[in-house]
């Protein structure tokens, strides 16, 4: 079972949307985003890097409007668990979904009988903190309001 996510990378004029069918948790995707940005390049190159580092990716580039989180820009994925919006101009990453509270991410899994609420393990929390610190080291903020 995959953890579906969308990573929207934009500069205010154009955007690249990366749909990931697997490993959409912040413990994975924040490291992927950090590595892709660290490899350099413009928006399209960063999106390409995300797909090369991650797995199960589909990348779509199109003109953005002011509403980055509109339905069109997110695609027709009704089963998304995580959404990441990377603003390369403002150097900020917004993370949405999965029951994310800003402290301990939780995710909902369905075992076919009932919903099971799963809280991230301490190892995942450490991975998330490491990725956030790495992103801060290259000048990015996370969920900056």
Structural topology:
Blueprint: E1 5-10, E2 14-20, H1 26-38, H2 43-53, E3 57-63, H3 71-74, E4 82-87, E5 92-97, E6 106-110, E7 115-119, H4 122-137, E8 141-142
Parallel strand pairs: 1-4, 5-8
Antiparallel strand pairs: 1-2, 2-3, 4-5, 6-7
Helix pairs in contact: 1-2, 1-4
Q: Descriptors for this entry?
A:
single chain; 145 residues; alpha/beta; six-stranded mixed sheet; 4 helices; 30% helix
Write a structural description.
The structure is a single chain. With 145 residues, the protein is an alpha/beta fold. The protein has one domain. The chain has four helices and eight strands. The strands form two sheets. The protein has a six-stranded mixed beta sheet, covered by helices on one side. A hairpin with a 4-residue loop joins strand 6 and strand 7. The longest helix is centred in the last third of the chain and has 16 residues, at 122-137.
């Amino acid at each position: 079972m995959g953890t579906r996510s969308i990573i929207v990378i934009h500069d205010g004029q154009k955007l690249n949307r990366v749909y990931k069918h697997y490993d959409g948790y912040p413990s994975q995707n924040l490291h992927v985003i950090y590595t892709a940005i660290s490899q350099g390049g413009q928006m399209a190159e960063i999106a390409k890097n995300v797909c090369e580092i991650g797995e199960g990716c589909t990348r779509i580039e199109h003109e953005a409007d002011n509403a980055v989180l509109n339905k069109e820009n997110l695609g027709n994925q009704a089963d998304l668990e995580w959404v990441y919006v990377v603003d390369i101009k403002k150097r900020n990453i917004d993370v949405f979904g999965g029951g994310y509270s800003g402290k301990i991410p939780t995710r909902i899994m369905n075992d076919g009988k009932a919903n099971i609420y799963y809280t991230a393990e301490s190892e995942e929390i450490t991975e998330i903190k490491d990725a956030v610190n790495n992103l801060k080291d290259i000048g990015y903020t996370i969920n900056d309001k």
